[in-house]
Design a protein that fits this description.
It contains 34 helices and 26 strands. The protein is an alpha+beta fold and about 900 residues long. It has 4 domains: about 160 residues, Calcium-transporting ATPase, cytoplasmic transduction domain A (Distorted Sandwich); about 270 residues, Calcium-transporting ATPase, transmembrane domain (Up-down Bundle), CATH 1.20.1110; about 160 residues, Rossmann fold; about 180 residues, Calcium-transporting ATPase, cytoplasmic domain N (3-Layer(aba) Sandwich). A hairpin with a 2-residue loop joins strand 10 and strand 11. The protein starts with 7 loop residues before the first helix and ends with a helix. The relative contact order is 0.09. About 0% of the residues have low confidence.
C-alpha cells in the first residue's frame, strides 16, 4: 500500500474497512495480529556491566592489569593497588560517557499522542493510541496530535504543523481530494497526515494506513536504531598511540627478560624492571588530562551558547570540514516577516525583522491604512512579547499593521468582527466582516490571482477606480517578481455589504487594495558565520524540506551559492547510487524537499568522501542525520526533544554563528591537545629509555613503579593540564581544517619528542650514576633513585615551559604568562619536597632526604631537557 497515491477505495478494500463504520472488533483483532501494535520498537539498551566490561578490552589497560598482578606477586602491594585503582577509575569514566541513541528513541516515543478518536462499528470512541490498527478511521480536531500515518478522508480548512518532520515553518494546508505523484515528498503530500504532527486549524477524518515502525516517525526510529556510535578522530588516534606504546612496551619487556635470563640476574629484579617499564610506557594521566581539558572546553562553550553533550565531540568540532545546516530556524529566524507592500503600482520597503514592532513602511501613502486594516482585522493571530500566537503568516501581518502605525488590538476592539468565511484550500481566501464608520465592510485576504478574479475595482491614490486588464497584468507581474524572490504573497480586497449579506456569499465584485510579500528572513549573524566558514576552509550545505525556489533564494541572500544550478531537489537523489551521490555533492550546496532518509544518505556520502561532517537541525526529521554525522547540532529553543537527545551539541540561542565559535574552540583545544600529548609522550619515552639503558648497562632499576606512577599521574599531569588551557592563536580560523588522516604526531613532532626524550634520559641517568658514585652506605641505591626521581620531575617541569609553543623559542613569547602552569610547577615542587623529606612518604615512595648541594645538582641537571627542547625547535625549522 502506498499511503498518498493509492485510491481510497482500494485502501478500504485492502484494509477491510469503510469510511462510515470503520472496523469491527473482529477486524481490529485480525489487523492487530497482522500489523502489530501502534508503537515504536527500540533496541534494548546495553547494561552498565557490559559498558564497564568493554573498557577493559583496551590494549593499554590489559598491560596495566598485568603490571598490577606482577606487582602484587612481587609483594609490591602499594604499586599493585594503585595501578588497579587507576584502571578502575578510567573504566568508570569511559562507561559514564555512553550512550545517546536510546535516549533519542525514548524522546521519539513521547511524541505519540496518548489518545485517539476512532470510529469502531460506526461509533465514535476514544482509545489509547497504541491500540490503533491499519483500517481504523480517525477523527481529527484542532489541537490534536495525529496518532498514525493517515490518508485523509475529509479535510475542512485542515492545517497541520509538520515542521518536526519537514522543517517547514508554515502549516501544511490539507486537501483530501488531491491526486499525487508517487515521488511527492512528505511536505507535498497534502492528502495525508503523519504521526506526531499537530492539527493547527480546521478538522477532518483520516484512514489509518501505517502504524508503529511503518510510519514516517517509525522509519526515523529505525534509522536511530541502526546508527552506530563511531569513535571520533581523536579517540581513534589516541587508541592507535596506546596500542603502539603497548606493543613497544611488550617488545622491550621481552628483550629485558631475555637479557636478564641470559645474565642469570635475580628474577625479582627482572620482573620489577618489566613492571617499571610497563608503567613507564603507559601515559596513565593522559585520559584524565584529555577529559579535564575537554570538560573545561565544554564550560567555555556554554558561555558561547553551545552545550556539548559528549566530551570527545569538543575536539571533533575542530576538524569539521562540512556543516550541513537545516534552513528554517537555523539559517533563518523562523519568524515570517513582511518585507514589501504593493499599492498604487509601487512597491514599498518594510524595515525590521521578526515579531518585534520596530520598523516602518518606507514612503507608503496615507491611504495604505486600508491595507493595514485588512491585514490585521482579517486575521486570528496575536503577538505577545515578540512571540506569535497563531499562524506565523498572520503574525507577520499583525506586525506589518503595527509598523504602518496601527495598533491592531485597539483596531479590533473598535471594529468588531460580525461575520466570517474561514480560509480553505479550494478558494485560497479568508473573509471577515466588520463595523467600520457605522458600515458593514468585508475584508478579504488570500492568493492574489484568486482575489483579482473576484475584483472589479481597485483602490489607488485614495480613490476607487476600474480594475483594467493592464492593471491586473501589472499586479500579477509584481506578484511573480515577489514569488521569484521566494516571498510569500498575500493580496487584500474590501467590499461594503448590507446587513442581510453573508460573507460566504459576498466574495465577488470586490475592490482590490494591494499586496504584501513576506519571507522567513536569514539571520544576519548566520551570513557572517558563513563567510567565516569560507575563510576557515569549511563548506556549508543547506539541507531543507522547503521548496527549492525558497531555499535557493535564501541561499543566494546568505552568500551560500551564486547560481540556482547549485541547488537540487530530494527526488533527484533517489536516482543516484552512492558513487553518483558523492560526485554530485562536489557541485551542489542546496538540497530542497529532502526526506529524513535523504539527509542520512547525504551525511553518509560526505563521510565516505572523507569529510568530517557537522549536521544542524531542530526537527524530528533531523534526528537520524544528527546521529549519523560526526557532530550533531540541535537547536535548544526551537528543537524537539528527539533532536536534542540525538545531538552531540545543543545551541542555546539557536544561532548558526554559535557553531563557528564552537569550531574555533574545538581547533584551539586540538592545538592544545597536540602540545600536551607531545609533552606526555616525550616523558614516557624518556622513562622507557632510562630503564632500558640502565638495564642494558646493568646499573640496576633507576626508578621503581610507584615513583613512575607518581611522575605520570601527578608531576606530568599538572603541567599537561596547564598546556591544555592555553589561549588560542588569533589566526586559528584562517587555516584550513586538518585532514581526517592527519596524525596528532606528525614528523616534526615525532622528531621533537624523540630528541627531548633523549635529553630527559641523559639528565636522569646522569643523576642516577652520580647518586651511585657519591654514596657508599647501604642506602646508595635509594639515594641514586631519589636523585633520578627528583631530576626527572624537575626536568619535566622545566620542559613544560618549552612545550607551550611548537615553533617559538622561549625568548620569543612571555614564558610566565600561563598562570596555571606556574601554579602547577609550584604544586609539583611542593609535593616533591614532601615525598623526599616526610618520613611516612619516604617509606611509600622509597626515597631518602637530599642535602642542599644535592638539590642544586638535581635542579641543574633538570635544566638539561629544556635545552634539548629548544634545539629541537631549531632543527625542525631547518630540516622539515
Amino acid at each position: 500500500m502506498t499511503l498518498h497515491t493509492d485510491p481510497l477505495i482500494e485502501l478500504y478494500e485492502q484494509l477491510n474497512t469503510s469510511e462510515d463504520k470503520g472496523l469491527s472488533p473482529m477486524q481490529v483483532a485480525k489487523n492487530r495480529e497482522k500489523y502489530g501494535m501502534n508503537e515504536l520498537v527500540t533496541v534494548k539498551k546495553r547494561g552498565l556491566a557490559n559498558m564497564i566490561f568493554d573498557q577493559f578490552k583496551d590494549f593499554t589497560v590489559i598491560i596495566l592489569m598485568i603490571a598490577s598482578v606482577l606487582s602484587i606477586f612481587l609483594h609490591e602491594w602499594i604499586d599493585g593497588v594503585v595501578i588497579l585503582c587507576i584502571v578502575a577509575l578510567n573504566a568508570a569514566l569511559g562507561a559514564y560517557q555512553e550512550n545517546k541513541a536510546s535516549n533519542a528513541l525514548e524522546a521519539l516515543k513521547k511524541m505519540a499522542s496518548p489518545k485517539a478518536k476512532v470510529y469502531r462499528d460506526g461509533i465514535l470512541t476514544e482509545i489509547e493510541t497504541p491500540e490503533l490498527v491499519p483500517g481504523d478511521v480517525v477523527k481529527l480536531d484542532t489541537g490534536d496530535y495525529v496518532p498514525a500515518d493517515l490518508r485523509l478522508i475529509e479535510a475542512v480548512n485542515l492545517k497541520v504543523d509538520e515542521s518536526a518532520l519537514t522543517g517547514e515553518s508554515v502549516s501544511s494546508e490539507k486537501k483530501h481530494t488531491a491526486v499525487l505523484d508517487v515521488q511527492a515528498s512528505i511536505g507535498d503530500r497534502i492528502n495525508s497526515a503523519y504521526s506526531g504532527t499537530i492539527v493547527t486549524y480546521g478538522y477532518g477524518k483520516g484512514l489509518v494506513v501505517n502504524t508503529g515502525m511503518e510510519t514516517e516517525i517509525g522509519k526515523i526510529a529505525q534509522m536511530l536504531n541502526e546508527s552506530d556510535d563511531e569513535l571520533t578522530p581523536l579517540q581513534k588516534k589516541l587508541a592507535e598511540f596506546g596500542k603502539m606504546l603497548g606493543i613497544a612496551c611488550l617488545s622491550v619487556s621481552a628483550l629485558i627478560i631475555a637479557l636478564g635470563l641470559l645474565r642469570k640476574q635475580d628474577m625479582l629484579e627482572i620482573f620489577l624492571t618489566a613492571v617499571s617499564l610497563a608503567v613507564a610506557a603507559i601515559p596513565e594521566g593522559l585520559p584524565a588530562v584529555v577529559t579535564t581539558v575537554l570538560a573545561l572546553g565544554m564550560q567555555r562553550m556554554v558561555k558561547r551558547h553551545a552545550i556539548m553533550k559528549r566530551l570527545s565531540a569538543v575536539e571533533t568540532l575542530g576538524s569539521t570540514t562540512v556543516i550541513c545546516s537545516d534552513k528554517t530556524g537555523t539559517l533563518t529566524q523562523n519568524k515570517m516577516t513582511v518585507q514589501s507592500i504593493y499599492m498604487d503600482a509601487l512597491a514599498f520597503e518594510v524595515t525590521g525583522t521578526g515579531y518585534a514592532f520596530a520598523g516602518e513602511v518606507v514612503g507608503a501613502p496615507p491611504h495604505s491604512e486600508w491595507l493595514y486594516r485588512a491585514a490585521s482585522l482579517c486575521n486570528d493571530a496575536d503577538i505577545e512579547d515578540e512571540k506569535c500566537i497563531g499562524d506565523p503568516t498572520e503574525g507577520a501581518l499583525v506586525v506589518l499593521a503595527q509598523k504602518g502605525g496601527i495598533d491592531y488590538k485597539t483596531l479590533r476592539k473598535s471594529h468588531p468582527r460580525v461575520d466570517e468565511f474561514p480560509f480553505d484550500s479550494d478558494r485560497k481566501l479568508m473573509s471577515t466582516v466588520h463595523i467600520i464608520d457605522e458600515a458593514r465592510v468585508m475584508l478579504t485576504k488570500g492568493a492574489t490571482d484568486e482575489l483579482l478574479a473576484r475584483c472589479e475595482t481597485i483602490y489607488t491614490g485614495g480613490e476607487t477606480k476600474p480594475l483594467t486588464e493592464d492593471i491586473k497584468k501589472a499586479i500579477l507581474d509584481q506578484n511573480n517578481q515577489y514569488a521569484s524572490n521566494a516571498l510569500r504573497v498575500i493580496g487584500y480586497a474590501m467590499k461594503n455589504v448590507s446587513d442581510s449579506e453573508k460573507a460566504v456569499d459576498s466574495e465577488h465584485g470586490m475592490t482590490f487594495i494591494g499586496m504584501s510579500g513576506m519571507i522567513d528572513p536569514p539571520r544576519e549573524e548566520a551570513i557572517k558565520a558563513i563567510e567565516t566558514c569560507k575563510k576557515a576552509g569549511i563548506r556549508v550545505i543547506m539541507i531543507t524540506g522547503d521548496h527549492i525556489t525558497t531555499a535557493t533564494a535564501i541561499a543566494k541572500r546568505m552568500g551560500l551559492i551564486e547560481e540556482a544550478s547549485s541547488a537540487i531537489e530530494g527526488a533527484e537523489i533517489n536516482a543516484l547510487d552512492e558513487a553518483g551521490l558523492i560526485e554530485m555533492l562536489k557541485h551542489k550546496s542546496v538540497f530542497a524537499r529532502v526526506s529524513p532518509e535523504h539527509k542520512v544518505r547525504l551525511v553518509k556520502a560526505l563521510k565516505a568522501n572523507r569529510e568530517v561532517v557537522a549536521m544542524t537541525g531542530d526537527g524530528v526529521n533531523d534526528a537520524p542525520a544528527l546521529k549519523a554525522a560526526d557532530i550533531g547540532v540541535a537547536m535548544g529553543i526551537a528543537g524537539t526533544d528527539v533532536s536534542k537527545e540525538a545531538a552531540d551539541m545543543i545551541l542555546t540561542d539557536d544561532n548558526f554563528a554559535s557553531i563557528v565559535s564552537a569550531v574555533e574552540e574545538g581547533r584551539i583545544i586540538y592545538s592544545n591537545i597536540r602540545k600536551f600529548v607531545g609533552f606526555l609522550l616525550s616523558c614516557n619515552i624518556g622513562e622507557i629509555l632510562i630503564i632500558l639503558i640502565a638495564m642494558v648497562a646493568n646499573w640496576g632499576v633507576p626508578l621503581v613503579p610507584i615513583q613512575l606512577l607518581w611522575v605520570n599521574l601527578i608531576t606530568d599531569s599538572l603541567p599537561a593540564f596547564s598546556l591544555g588551557v592555553e589561549k588560542g592563536d588569533q589566526s586559528i580560523m584562517l587555516r584550513k581544517p586538518r585532514g581526517i588522516d592527519e596524525p596528532i604526531i606528525d614528523k616534526k613532532m615525532a622528531f621533537s619528542i624523540g630528541f627531548q626524550s633523549i635529553g630527559l634520559a641523559v639528565a636522569v641517568l646522569t643523576a642516577f650514576r652520580v647518586g651511585l658514585m657519591i654514596s657508599t652506605d647501604v642506602d646508595r641505591m635509594m639515594l641514586a633513585r631519589t636523585f633520578a626521581f627528583s631530576t626527572l620531575i624537575f626536568g619535566e617541569l622545566f620542559r613544560a615551559y618549552s612545550a607551550r609553543s611548537e615553533d617559538q623559542y622561549l625568548w620569543q613569547f612571555n614564558v610566565l604568562s600561563n598562570k596555571f602552569l606556574n601554579m602547577s610547577v609550584v604544586i609539583a615542587v611542593t609535593l616533591l619536597m614532601l615525598v623526599v623529606y616526610v618520613p611516612a612518604l619516604q617509606v611509600i615512595f622509597k626515597t631518602v632526604p637530599l642535602s642542599a648541594n644535592h638539590l642544586i645538582l638535581v635542579v641543574a641537571l633538570g635544566l638539561l631537557p629544556i635545552l634539548f627542547g629548544e634545539f629541537a625547535k631549531k632543527f625542525k625549522k631547518s630540516s622539515f
